[in-house]
Amino acid sequence: MQLTPTRISAVIDSALEATGPVVDAAGHVLSLHLPSYGLEVNADAGRLSKVLSNLIENAAKHTPPGGHIAISVELAQDNVVVTVADDGIGMDPAEIEGMFDIFTQASGTPGRSNGGPGTGLALSRSIVQLHGGQLSASSAGPGKGSEFRFSLPLLRATTAREAAVAAADATPGATRAAGDATVLVADDNADAAWGIAKLLEMSGFKVMIANNGSEALDLALRHKPQVALLDLGMPDIDGHEVARRVRAQGNAQMVLIAATGRGQDADVRESLAAGFDAHLTKPVDVNHLRALMAQQLSRR
User: Fold this and answer.
1) Which domains does the chain show, CATH number per domain?
2) What DSSP line would sit under the chain, residue for residue?
3) Residues 241-260: pLDDT tens digits?
């Protein structure tokens, strides 16, 4: 393995792309919960993505159609902890360790008698251990869902503000003066919104910030910015509904860009149907965002 500084968000993006067809085919609802700051680990990105993909596929296969899968990331002391939780068939707690044995699987658990995850989980645990981490599982019992989590030593944590300042310092002067449009950045994560706004301001854009859907809708309709970057998961009025209401008021020239943790084809289609011009997966790459805005504005 070749270990290099790796953003955990990049590992998640890769795993979600790989497992999207399995999750979508089962009709599961997948949620993603990431901290407002960036987390880096020393990792072989490809192998670590395979581990996470295996955990997501395991959850999808052992959860009845239309179930729920949640992926979360948190910082626990000096470790990055990634958890995949589902509301599926669960496990007998006494059989959990056997799930990681390459020669056994939870034979007594309904639905796991065929295609059990034994080999995949054993290899996944070995890969995580080679990264200096741990992989474990828990369940309240059959029919009560499962949680699989792995922890890795933290290499570096970066707040949105630190990332914004660092990226702005590295931005060429010509790029800083490139934009003169007004941009609405709407996200209920105030720190993330601030970071994106600061980068855009340093590139020459005028920026307004909203931290909920109602505020975003009000600013969009009153000030009519050229671009609106809307988080889809805002409270009270979600991003899709904000986009629909903006378009309903005849604002066809406003560039609407969706920002979300999900980036499967179905998610993109839903955003386009709501009136968005483009769909970005979090964490938003500001260089990509600037290029996308320039492209969209040139068409107006």
Assistant:
1) 4-160 (3.30.565.10), 177-298 (3.40.50.2300)
2) ---EEEEHHHHHHHHHHHHHHHHHHTT-EEEEE--SSEEEEEE-HHHHHHHHHHHHHHHHHTS-TT-EEEEEEEEETTEEEEEEEE-SS---GGGTGGGG-TT---TTSTT-SSS-SHHHHHHHHHHHHHTT-EEEEE-SSTTS-EEEEEEEE--EEE-HHHHHHHHHHTS-HHHHTS--SEEEEE-S-HHHHHHHHHHHHHTT-EEEEESSHHHHHHHHHHH--SEEEEETT-SSS-HHHHHHHHHHTT-TTSEEEEEES--SHHHHHHHHHHT-SEEEESSP-HHHHHHHHHHHHHT-
3) 999 999 999 888 999 999 98
